[in-house]
Write a structure and sequence with these properties.
By secondary structure, the chain is an all-alpha fold. The protein has 19 helices and two strands. One of its GO terms (cellular component) is plasma membrane.
Length: about 500
Amino acid sequence: MRLSLIPFQTHCSTDKSEKCQGLNPGLLDRKPGTLTTRLQRRLTLGLLSFATGTVVGWSSPILPSLQSDYSPIGSPPITKESASWIGSSMCFGAFIGVPIYNYICNNYSRKLSGYLSAVPLVPSWLLVTFANSEVMLYIARFIAGLTLAAGGVFHPLYVAEISEDCVRGRLSASMMLMYNIGIVFFYLVGWYLPYTTTGYIGLTIVIIYLLVFTYVPETPYYLMSQGKILEAMNTLEWLRGNNNPTIEGEFESLSKRLKDVKANKSASLKDLFATRGSRKALMIGIGIIANSQLCGYFVVLVYSVNIFQEAESTMTPNSATILVGLLQLVGSSVSTFTVDHAGRRTLLILSNAFSAICLGVIGTYSYLKQSRDMREWGWIPVVCLSMFIVSNALGVSPLRFLIISEIFSIRTRGMANTVCICVMWVLIFLVTKFFVNISNLIGLHGCYWLFSLCCVLGWLFCYFFVPETKNRTLESILKELNGDSIVADLPRRKSFEDKQEQALI
C-alpha cells in the first residue's frame, strides 16, 4: 500500500476561547503535551538538522586548508576546480537521494525512515577522516548528500504528522535554526581543531542521533495506516499529554483523513499539470526554490572563507565567516518567532529587497577594489554579507518549503514536494560548481551583481505571483490559484497551545 506524504492535521480556532480546535467540533480545550515530551521530540529532530548543517559547514573552513601547501590529506594542494567539485559533489547525492527517500517514506515506517536518513553520514565521515586523495573526498561528500536529501523529505513529513497547524510553522523553523547552528558549529570546529578531529566529531553527532531516535515513537498516522489502533492512541497520548479528553476526537479526525487518502490514488507528475491551480502552484513552488538558490545563499555558506580572502576585508576570513554564521543564527531565531505571525509573502518581499541591496553594494565594492585602494572601506564585505545572510534567513530560506506545503492540494503535495526538492538540488549544484568558473569569467563583482539581479527578479516574482497563505485554509488558497471567487478567511487568534509552544523555543 502506498501512503501519501500528507498527514492528519488540526487547525487553530478563531473563537475567543483561544484554544486549538481540530477537524472535529469536540476538539476543544486541548491541553499541551508534557514539557519532557515536547523537548524530547524537538531535540531529537533538531539533532538530525544539526548533523545536516555540519555537512554544509564543513566545506568553508576545510577547503582553504586543502588548497594550501600543508594539505591535511597528504596530497599536493588541490586546485580551485577540485575544490568546486568537493563543494558541489554532495548535490549529486542529494538529487539522487530525493526519490529514494520519497519511496522509503511512502512505503516504510517513519522510524525506519528516520534511521536511514542519518545512516549515510557514518561512511561519509569515516571517508573524510581517513581520506588520502581527492577522490575519497568526492565519494564522501556524495554520500553525505543522501542525508541532505533525506532532510528535505523526512523532516517535513514527520513534523507534520506529530504537530498541529498552530505550531507547525514554528516547529519547522526551529529545525532550520538547528541546521544553521550545525553550520556555525563546524565553522568553529574547522578553524580551531585538526582536520581528522572534525571527522570524528561529525561521526559522533550522527551516532548520538541514532541512539536518541530510538526513544522517539512512530507517528499516529502511520500506526493507524498499519491497523495498530491501540499503539496509535498511545502515541497521541504521548504527544498531547496523558488523560487528554480531546484525543478521542482527534483520533476520529485521523481516521477520516486516512480513509480520504486511501480513497484517492497517489498523484503522478501528470497531475501537477491537470488544473490551472496545480500548474500555477507548481510555477510558484519552482519559482520560490529558484529564488532561494540563485541569490547565492548556498555559495556564501560553502565558500565564505575564500570569498573573504578575495575581498580583503578588515577582519580575518575565518573571523568574518564565523560572524556571518552567528548572524545567520540571529536571522533564523527571529524567523522562528515571526513565521506564524508575519505574512509569508511580506517576509519574502522584504527578504529579497534587502538581499538585492546588500549584494549590489558588495559587488560595487569588489569592482572598485580592482582599480583603487579600498582598505579604508574594508568593513563593507563583512557588513553586507552579514546583512545578506540575515535577510535571507528571515524570509526566503525558511519559508520556501512552508509555502510549498500550503499551496498544493492534499493529493498532489507529495509529488510537488519531490519535484521542487529535485529542482533545488540541481540549482544548488549548478551555482556551487560553476561559481568559481563564472567568477573567473566575469569577476567576483560580476557574480555579486548577478546574484543581486536574481534577488530583484525574486522580489518581482513574489510580489506579483505568490499569494499570502498565513492563517488561510487550503480551500481558499486553492480557489485563488484556480481563479475562483475567494471567501476571505477569518483571522486566527493565538491558541493556548501556541503560546505554550512558543515558551519552549
